[in-house]
Amino acid sequence: MFERIAATAVARRRLILLATLLFCVLAAAFGGKVSSRLSAGGYDVPSSESTAAATALADTFHTGELNLVLLVHTPAGPNDPATARKGLDLTAALAKEPGVQQVVSYWSLGDPASLRGAAKDSALVMAHINGDEDQVATSLNALRPHYRNGFEGLTLQFGGRAEAYKELTDQTQKDLTLAETLILPLTLLALIFVFRGVIAALLPLALGIIAIMGTLAVLRVLVSFTSVSVFAMNLTTALGLGLGIDYSLFVVSRYREELHRGSGVEQAIAVSLRTAGRTVLFSSLTVLLSLSALLIFPVYFLRSFAYAGIPVVAFAALAALVVLPALLAVLGHRIDTWSVAKRRTSSVEQGFWHRLATLVMRRPVPMGLAAAAILLLLGAPFLGIKYSLADERGLPVTAQAHQVHDILAADYSAREFEPMLVVARGIGDPARDQATITAYAQRLSLLPNVARVDALAGSFSHGRQSALPTPQSQRFATADATWLSVVPSVDAYSDAGQQLVTTVRALPHPFPVLVGGEAAAGKDTLTALGDRLPYALLIIAVSTFVLLFLLTGSVVMPLKALALNTLSLSASFGAMVWVFQEGHLRTYLGHFTATGTIVATNPIMMFCVAFGLSMDYEVFLLSRIKEEHDADADNVRAVARGLERTGALVTAAAGLLALVFVSFLTSGVSYMKMLGFGLALAVLADATLVRGVLVPAFMRLAGPLNWWAPAPLARLHRRLGLREGLVAHPPTAAAAPQDADAVSTSLPI
Questions:
Q1: CB 387, CB 580: distance < 8 Å
Q2: How many degrees, rounded to 5, is the angle at CA 629 between CA 627 and CA 635?
Q3: pLDDT in the model for residue 533
Q4: Class of domain 2-38+196-391+524-745
Q5: How many CB atoms lie within 10 A of CB 132?
Q6: CB under 8 Å to 453, separation ≥6 — which residues?
Q7: Which residues contact 517 (CB under 8 A, 6 or more apart)?
Q8: Residue 342 clears pLDDT 70, i.e. is over it
Q9: Residue 514 contacts by C-beta under 8 Å, 6 or more apart in sequence?
Q10: What is d(CA 219, CA 222) in angstroms, rounded to the nearest whole number?
Q11: 308 membership: H or E segment, kind and range
Q12: Distance CA 551, CA 622 (A)
């Protein structure tokens, strides 16, 4: 198959390149503005109780979560007559804005102390903006300019989930522009250093651009059918460039090696595709399957990374197997044009990676234990991880939503903007059943960490009625339904806030209820993620095992790969907790707010992405070791020679990919910093400690067992196994005689 692809790429090179150029132009035109259609949320579970409660509130009561908070600064005090009049006018004006269905404020609710700052210099106006996340964003963008300069002399700050999502979208677009501006020239310089030539260095960027443009077009189609997170753009850019670098390194290095052995251009392309090209195909399958595990999660934030990751991997692999050979056919020997350093040739036994592997295999137990201890030490903080979901604190401290969140947390006694919403439908006429509603509201108000309960019958605190019903109370009832607002005194994502959800749901109800609100939605999301996580891990483990078995014919090698990759990922997870949960290194990584928790979606996403990339390098290394083993080399020699032939490539690829991920540290969003930091560390740990120390140590100890499989599976592999390997290619007649063990490389590593 690969010979036919190579022959076609050479014969039709101009047609392929012209078609590729046309594809990129059309894809850019079609998908170039997809970012304006992406969403900032994606954490709610569609089938959850909290979502059902939100739907019931919207359909029955035409209201919902108070997702917009206006912090009104009142130097004269909120009870100043002039300020009070303006506050009521502001409440009425906001209620008339399109898309706004419910507005309550300190002044409209009768001056409750919980809606006034402790310093008595601010008060709250809260509203529900109707619709899904995109509709909320549209309504907010329309009304916000009306209050940009305050209202009748009152100074306003915008907060709440609606404002946070708006600022998150704006910040992400700024971050992406900045990252692309920085990373493209830096990556090009690094590629020139690695490839030792300008022309060769441009090829990975070409592959990356093809993958990115193709993925943008796919995302443009997907947003017509489903919601896609705005953060899918970050993964598209990072993986597009990263995999373009990885795959071009594998193919171009092999191609240059063949040319310097004396092969003709067409033959060099054929050998490169048959060997490195086969590795690219197999590696892309491992990355694709790891990313596909994200589709099992019910929140579209995580699914969006699969929506972006799967096509970017597919386009990068397709470009490496079809477009890159056509480019090489056009360039021919000119690929070394504008080279900046001479190539060096050395015996395979004299290389750094061969010497390292030999050193490790002389003392496999102490060397392996030392490397494992380092990874476990780095991973230890992960044992203390605490999960939450993203909130306003993930934004820069200069963001209004972040500032409002901090003021509310410090200066307000209750979480008025995070009420728990208890919805009951089909109960008969609530007006005739006020005694039952009153008794239920009283029981709710007695629960720990409940500041107040608002209902049709009035307001209740500590088991007693604290306020009589007002005209505003009528919003809690329709002809056959009612709802209650349970205002907590603790943060929604704190342990106490999450326990309160469980307590409210377990409380005996006089009628069937649905419990919603931010705390309930957070609990439902965390529960759903935990329930689906084992299945995602199983998908990754089984698919990886099967693919590596087809490659190696061994059941030991896949198990080794799963264990060592998990060990290397534990180091990045531990570092992530130490830095972002506990707040270390903020001065060096760009200032961010340490919340004492980790956004629960980040470890899941990191595992799927980093595991796939780690397997990418595992495939490349194992294919070369297996080739040496199949050529009658003993176990020790096969490992040392295989590592020498791939170590520089894997390390260079990992370094370049880490550089791409490090660009995420420029983001103003803390959990994107976390993702970039964690992925960069995972890739580097895998390419150094794991590939350089743990793999040779394990394979030395396992000896002949490395390639063992039960007889039935061995027979299956002989029938279905993939005959992979970078097979030795003898010099052609025109080539100068070379030592068969000589390695020619342009890599500086």
A1: no
A2: 145
A3: 95
A4: mainly alpha
A5: 10
A6: 441, 442, 444, 445, 459, 460, 461, 484, 485, 486, 487
A7: 50, 53, 65, 418, 419, 420, 421, 486, 492
A8: no
A9: 49, 50, 52, 53, 56, 422, 423, 424
A10: 5
A11: helix 300-318
A12: 9
Confidence band of 341 (pLDDT split at 50, 70, 90): low
CA distance 431 to 476: 11
Residue 106 has pLDDT above 80, yes or no: yes
Rounded CA-CA distance 104/4 in Å is: 70
Q: How far is CA 244 from CA 258, 311, 317, 329, 382, in A?
A: 21, 13, 8, 18, 32
Q: How far apart are CA 568 and CA 560, in angstroms?
A: 12
DSSP run (H or E) holding 570: helix 556-576
| The two three-digit tokens of residue 462, written as one number | 């500590």
Which of the 8 DSSP states describes residue 525? H
Q: What is the pLDDT of residue 346?
A: 53
Give backbone dihedrals phi and psi of 601, rounded to 5 degrees, phi first.
-75, -20
Q: How confident is the model at residue 65 (pLDDT cuts 50, 70, 90)?
A: confident
Comparing 16-20, 226-230, 333-337, which segment has the lowest mean pLDDT? 333-337
Q: Which two tokens stand for residue 395?
A: 């934004």
Partners of 344 in beta bridges: 745
What is the pairing mode between strands 598-599 and 387-388? parallel
Backbone φ and ψ for 468, nearest 5 degrees, come out as -75, 160
Q: Which of 119, 171, 599 is nearest to 407 (CA)?
A: 119
* Residue at 3: amino acid letter: E
| Among the ranges given (121-125, 320-324, 335-339, 445-449), the one the predictor scored with the smallest mean pLDDT | 335-339
The domain ranges of the chain are: 2-38+196-391+524-745
β-strand partners of 14: none
The number of beta carbons lying within 10 Å of the beta carbon of residue 426 is 9
Helix, strand, or coil (residue 229): strand
Name the percent of the chain lying above pLDDT 90.
Answer: 51
Averaged over 380-396, what is the pLDDT? 91
Q: What's the rounded Cα separation, in Å, for the pair 161 and 44?
A: 13
Residue 506, pLDDT > 70, answer yes
pLDDT at res. 729: 41
DSSP-derived letter for residue 69 is E
Cα–Cα distance, 105 to 362 (Å, whole number): 74
3-state secondary structure of 298: coil
> Pseudo-torsion of CA 368, 374, 380, 382, nearest 10°?
-90
Stated as kind and residue range, the H or E segment containing 526 is helix 518-552
Task: Decide: 526 and 602 in contact? Cβ < 8 Å.
Answer: no
DSSP string, 433-481: GHHHHHHHHHHHHTSTTEEEEEETTEEEETTEEEE---GGGGGGB-SSE
